[in-house]
Amino acid sequence: MNKIYIVAFLFLFMVVSCEEEGRLEDMIDMVVGTYTDGGSDGLYSFKFDQENGVAKSKQSFKLTNPSYLTFNEDGNVIYAVGETNDEAACVYAIAYEKATGKMSLINSMPTGGEDPCYVETDGKMVLTANYSGGSISEFFLKETALDSVVAWTTGSWGGPDTLRQKEPHIHCTRFSPDGKYIFMTDFSGDQMLRLDNQDDSIRIFKPFMVSLGTGPRHFVYDKEGRFVYLMGELSSRITVFRYNDGELETIQEISTDTVNGRGGADIHLSPDGKFLYASNRLVHDGIAIFAVNAETGKLRKVGYQETGNHPRQFNITPNGKFLLCACRDDNVIEVYQRNQQTGLLKKMRKGIHVDKPVCVQFHLTLPSNDIDDHWRTYQWSDSIQWNDAAFPWQVADDVAEQGDSSARQDGHGEQ
Predict the structure, then answer these.
(1) Residues 336, 388, 69, 268: what is their CA dihedral angle, to the nearest 10 degrees?
(2) Quick one: pLDDT band at residue 260, thresholds 50, 70, 90?
(3) Nearest to 281 by CA among 217, 189, 374, 340
(4) Which of 187, 196, 309, 389 is the right S-S partner for 329, CB 3.0 to 4.6 Å?
(5) Stronger pLDDT, 110 or 372, i.e. the higher one
(6) Cβ-count burial of 202 within 10 angstroms (0-12 exposed, 13-18 middle, 19+ buried)?
(7) DSSP string of 322-390, one letter each residue
(8) Across the chain, which distance is largest between two alpha carbons, in Å?
(9) Gap between the Cα atoms of 390 and 33, Å rounded
């Protein structure tokens, strides 16, 4: 009987807390990857309220240069690269506790290529793009742990930039929407490469050329799998492809900046697919904003939001209300409100301060209609311990305010 009273009390407490501080479905897991040559531990976990734009810090976990990370589908495992320019370069599998934000190492594997800078999983395999190694690595998974290396695939070189394209570089690799292929950005070869994701011993390798001097970096698929959008690092131009069963057909190229900054970085579509965002570093740092034609997939530029220094990566909350931008050289994650009708951004006055942030990833656990599912993150026993970790749905005291966005006109020498 006492346990029933305790459960009823906790349920009432949770309902009241959620009404005051945000609904359960608005509180999402957020993990930030950093460079650790300053004062950073490595990975940082937060709860982020995607309704009001407030983050609450949870835990940190010491790793060397976890510059890119991704969640598995369930959100209880993180795969992160260890970006180093030597034999220590690796990929980590990390257990993640949603209730507390605590992280613990499952295992790690060497990537066999220096400076891994991108990681993706389909639940069966993990891919890494190894920038200086000029390769991708494919790893089998044994449950959630990294098991063995399947293969390495190497890019090419020979683009017109004799300094930055003189050696192979791969910056991004992703599974196709249907899972039949693996695509990668061949930075120095000015092409997208496709590899069959088959169990057969013979794997067909096919290139898709882009304009010379593009320096392909990151790319995204639209949610229906009809179009692919590629960000060129050297050209700061977006190449739009029509996608059909592994084939890419170029249908548009459009510039993201007006200063030829040669520092194109990240690219994302809004959750509703109506707008596309692409960041630029090095000169006139900011995020270009495009409207997407739903029928043709083509882009129309509608704005440019200046940001802090070196917006290497950014992400958009699952509900589409906020864009969070990792400004590496300002040691801050800037938080922007999105106008979901116009696509334009408005900077909130207070950001999230982290040393050298370079990757922001979210995971949203959808609530169930079954009341029992709301308690899965709580462990019940005859003696219940009352601690902060048991109630993760707390909003930071430091509430962000809206304000005008700041401008940055200075350039940066680092790539």
Answers:
(1) -20
(2) confident
(3) 217
(4) 309
(5) 110
(6) exposed
(7) EEEEEEGGGTEEEEEEE-TTT--EEEBS--EE-SSEEEEEEE--PPPSSGGGGGTT----SS----GGG
(8) 76
(9) 25
